Amino acid sequence: MVNKQQLQAVKERFSSFLSGETQIVADEAFCNAVRSYYEGFLKSERVSRMVQSGGCSANDFREVFKKNIERRVRSLPEIDGLSKETVLSSWIAKYDAIYRGDEELRRGPQRAHLSAVSELILSKEQLYEMFQQILGIRKFEHQLLYNACQVE
């Protein structure tokens, strides 16, 4: 169960993220989702009362965030090569990193490295899509060009 001190620590972590004081890379849509969660849920009197009565777990907090972002992500436009499930899992991973705060650093650099790698993969997909749109090339055309440029 989450106690008052833990709730305060979680609020501070999310506030730090929103102030840009963390190393977590995020786009505007994720920041808006976190801001909504922070303002509408974490800072609410209802959550304070639930924590005070011992009725909230860390998993409850995560589920509220997950339900919130599922609605948001479903309303985003579809991006070729980037599934909404990928966005959801990336956002949940970022949420977990914010929620854990300093605990992430204590577990060692390996986990932080994996998080950075997943960010890199997501960024590559987004860049790929952006360049396709800029150049006006469709996926199959890109594959044809790629195959034509291969030297044996």
From TrEMBL:
InterPro entries given in the database record: CAPS
UniProt record, GO biological process: dense core granule exocytosis; positive regulation of exocytosis; synaptic vesicle exocytosis
Highest taxon of source: Eukaryota
GO cellular component: glutamatergic synapse; presynapse
PANTHER family for this protein: CALCIUM-DEPENDENT SECRETION ACTIVATOR, CALCIUM-DEPENDENT SECRETION ACTIVATOR 2
UniProt-recorded name of the protein: Uncharacterized protein
Taxonomic lineage of the native organism: Eukaryota, Metazoa, Chordata, Craniata, Vertebrata
